[in-house]
Design goal:
21% strand, six-stranded antiparallel β-barrel, 15 helices, five-stranded parallel β-sheet, 39% helix, alpha/beta
Amino acid sequence: MLTTKQYKFWFLTGSQDLYGDACLKVVAEHSHKIVDALNASGALGYELVWKPTLIDSVSIRETLAAANADPDVAGCIVWMHTFSPAKMWIRGFNEYRKPLLHLHTQFNRDIPFDTIDMDFMNENQSAHGDREFAHMLTRMKTPRKIVSGHWSDPNVQKRIADWMNVAIGALESRYLRIVRVGDNMRDVAVTEGDKVEAEQKFGWEVDAYCITDVAEYVNDVALGDINALTDEYYDTYDLITDGRDADEFRRHVAEQAKIEIGFRKFCEENRYQAVVTNFQSLAGLNQLPGLAMQRMMADGYGFGAEGDWKTAGVVRLFKLMTAGKTGKKGTSFMEDYTYHLEPGNKAILQSHMLEVCPSIAEAKPAIRVCPLSMGNREDPARLVFTAKEGDGVACSLVDLGTRFRMIINEVAVKKQVTPMPKLPVATALWAPKPDFETGTEGWLMCGGAHHTAFTYDLTSSDVVDLCDHFGIESVVIGEGTTMGSLKRDLMIGEVYYK
């Protein structure tokens, strides 16, 4: 199973020495109490580490350089307790490269109307200092998230926690390595893309191997290991045999166990965290990887089909960004298939030929073995299930030739009440927001792909924050979107991201 380190975030407090040591002592006490309270709240998924108050350009630069260099630091949260002349921060932020959150808060929730005096005013100037600080970041075009409100507010704490999850994805993106087994599906446009630009923007290494390179690992798997994993399959999932002979059914399932073990070993030895396959490139394999890829995705690997490395990368980032969330509902590679156009109940049937992650399953998945025309191989085993009901986002990262664009559609996954017994694949039935017409027309207008990275556990705002960190265009189709507003967003993006 893929794991990441237990990251930490630094809490940096800005001030200056105009009001003397007594004031600075209060500043330190206040920021310490805020950090302790946030850590004790249980709202944050990661530890917040207090750092001494920053009052000059030397200490600021040294602290931000140390945050850059520390592999366990995922980002910094910065707060100006008092007025902090922002020119002091320029050198530090010229070099700082990790995610940044500007917390616009103050220690006291309320104004002490009966006792407030000028000493209190001078000591509690976040309304003043944060504006000075933010002006300089805006002038420097420094990407950051801004959260405003009292630090004790549960909504403020939730927004900080959500940003922390985004920061983990942004930082881990620098180390993401994607293996393409074979090339892009022939004659398909939307799954293509500039891999050099992707490494510049996202940090992704996207490498191609011959399918035979991985097939060697698959075919070297020991029989005992295959049988052990097949037994695990049988203990973990239900079986839908469709009247097949029991031994013949198990042989097909065991082939996926062999593929899973081989692919995992290849990825572990070569340090890949996302996998891309193509049914047109299967030399050396007896089946298209199905159940094998579904289980690897459930363990945190990114996945993309038909050469779609961009979606594989986004799926991996979403897995990382949601790994620490309690009550998470799942993340998966997905594809638009066919429409349900019943008036008042319009929806899109989502699926893929095999590879949908069981993390989104409503109930216990089952193994089926069914023919598959694509790939010209034997009948592959796969997990079948229907997806949970609930809201989520479906995201498509596309290469427009001159830039990347992330299209984000808010969707509502419906409960599937009508069985589809002849469809031997995992499915989700969802309605795009704000409505079917705007959702689908807007998607087409934006140039969105048929493949998506889907998750229940992030919001459109989370994904926009991630794109802001990368400096790429993001377009949201959701509640409140109209075709007019969307066209304006696209025209602005065309100018801004040239």
